[in-house]
Each structure stands twice: as C-alpha cells, then as structure tokens.
Amino acid sequence: MPPTPLPTLLSSSELSYLHTSLSLSPPIRPDARSPTSFRPLVAETDLLPTANGSARLCFADGTEAIVGVKAEVERTGVVGKKVDLRDSGVEEDIEMGDGDDKTVGSGKVGGEDRWLEVTVDIPGQRDDDAMVVFLGQMIFEGLVADGEFRGRLVVNERWHWRVFVDILLLSAPLTYPLPLLSLTTHLALLSTHLPAPVAGLGKDDDPLFNDDWDAAFPLYPSAYSKSRAKASIARPPITLLVISVGDNIFFDPSHAELAVADAVIAVTIASSTSENRNDGELSLLAIRTIDPPSRLSSLAAEVGQAGEDGAWKPKKGGMSRSVLRKMVGMCVEKGGVGQEVLGGLEGFT
Question: What are the UniProt keywords, alphabetically (predicted)?
C-alpha cells in the first residue's frame, strides 16, 4: 500500500538511536507516551449548519480535519420499471434479485455500496494521488464492510438515501493522516441525522418527510435512544494505525516513529451496542499493510553510510505471524485499545 510521502529529516545516527529506544523493554517513546497512548486531541460535532452531520478533530501536533455528511433522497430501481441513473444520465432496466430485499423493518440488509460516496481532500495533493485514493478507499471499505450501513439508507423499495462524506484535511499532514480522518469521520456519522418520514413507507409509496429538524432521527442511534432497534446496533467503524519496532507494538505513531517502524498496518474495527449492555463486542473489518518510510530510505542509508558506526539499517522482509496476531489482538480484545478509543469518542457526541 502507499507509503507516507513525508521526508525523514533525522540523520542515520538519530534514526538508529530512536529504533533502539523503541525496542527496549519497556520502550521509551520520544514524547514519553505509553505504547497504547494516543496524542491529546480536541473535537466538536455539528459545526456545519447546512450538513446532516459534521465533526472537527484536531491532534496536539496541530493537524486538523473537518468532515461533513450530506444526504439526499434518490429513487431506487424496481422490477420492470425504467429509472434514471444519476451517475450515467441514461435510462436502464434494473431488476432486483431475491436477495435484494429493501423493505424497511424486514430485518434483511439491503442497499448498495454505491449509495455511499467518500471524498478526501489534502492540501497540496491531487485527487488522484495514490495516498488520497488509498485513504478514501480505506474509509469507504470500513463503512460498507459489515453490510449494515447501506441497510440504514433504505427508505422503501422505491427510494433510498444517498450519503456523501466529504473529508478535508485543513493542513499539510505531519504524519500519516489515516487515524485522524477516520476518527473525524466516525464522529461526523455519529452526529448525522436524517429527516423523519411522516408518510410513504409502503413499498410503492413516495415518502414524505418532516420539516422539523428536531424530529430528525440519528443515522446511528445511541444505546439510550428510544428509537433503537431490539437487535444489536452497530457504530461507525474506526481505523487504527499500528506499528511494530522489534517485539514492541505502538499505536498512533508520530512521524519519527513511523520512520523507524519495522511494520505498519491499518486495522479497521467496529463496535455494536447490544440491548442489555453498552460495551459491545468489537469486530475486525479490514487489515491493510502500509509500506513504512524506512523501505524508501533503506537504499540511501546502505549506499552512503553502511560502513559508519551507528548507521541506520532498516529491517528487510515482512512481519511474523505472531507479531501480526498481537497487533490485531490489542485492537479487538475486550478492554483493549479499540474499546478505549471508541469509548473516548462517545464522549464528544
């Protein structure tokens, strides 16, 4: 997967010292955090007045992101009828198979992935740059991975919600921005509300919606919401960036720590809140490997300073299965990092 394009300004000797410090037991991080600690952050929700949901999140290093969520009603294809495809501008016959049940309240997950659109904007980068495309795809895949999100967009068999998630990084990234964008998207979706239908929930009816915003219902009802279903209710996913240095595992790595990482993975997890408890089980939705910056700097280090004492020599090869198992386990285990992060984010909504 695309590596972080940020240059490493540390010398070979400084990188070697940092790698040694992170490999100790217990490890010593440059900012004195524990291996599972995240950088301090501030966040707020519902800051964009014209959006269905929005959030702003800022890390202590100054990197900041804003996410806006907009929703509009679109017509869904039904058997034997012509529908206008907005993406292509042409008419086409669309048939729903037996597995495409889109009846509200039927208990069957319907909907389509194309009803969700995620865009990422990073200052100084094109929309088709590798990292921009990868970040958007990671967030998109996490949202549609469990199949529940698109089911929430069904109005009836003829109509559905189309959701646009616009992600803006307000400043040039000081480290790999995936966790920042993912956490901000999580908060924006938690704050997203859709107009409440007042009529037209039958499969052949045109829906009518309440104009009163106070009557709107949340896209992700809270555990204490009166409108929540009896079954478990999922929460928006989050993606954590995890690195390994030697036998040690670190979360929310800084740019310097990424520079000496032996392995980097992005772990997407989600939580559900059951009817009887608030600490739902975590589920693993996706794992992606990311090329650490050391792979790009290894050639220069070997050519220029291979013979010097203390020269930085990046590790070659991949990670062992035991290390990967440990990294994932720390994200999804009960009382682990994943539950701690999700619990902390709930406090901002």
Answer: Cytoplasm, Exosome
Does residue 33 belong to any structural domain of this protein? yes
Number of domains the chain contains: 1
Q: Can you tell me the distance from the alpha carbon of 15 to that of 12, in angstroms, rounded to the nearest whole number? A: 5
Q: Which two tokens stand for residue 137?
A: 């795809």
Whether 233 is covered by a domain: the verdict is yes
Which of 273, 265, 280, 268 is CA-nearest to residue 327? 265
- Answer yes or no: is 334 within a domain: yes
Residues 266-311 pLDDT 10s: 999 998 654 444 456 788 999 998 887 766 654 444 433 433 455 6
Q: Which long-range contacts (CB under 8 A, 24 or more apart) does 125-131 make?
A: 130/2, 131/2, 131/4, 131/5
Residue 123's CATH number: 3.30.230.70
CB atoms closer than 10 angstroms to residue 178: 22
Structural domain including 322 reads 12-346
Q: Pick from 277, 192, 286: which is nearest to 240 by CA?
A: 286
In a domain, 3, yes or no: no
Please write the tens of the pLDDT for every residue from 13-65.
Answer: 888 889 999 999 999 999 999 999 998 999 999 999 989 999 999 998 889 99
Cis preceding linkage at 207, omega within 30: no
- The pairs formed by 4-7 with CB atoms below 8 angstroms and a separation of 24 or more are 4/131, 4/173, 4/175, 4/176, 4/255, 4/258, 4/290, 4/293, 5/131, 6/173, 6/174, 6/175, 6/176, 6/255, 6/293
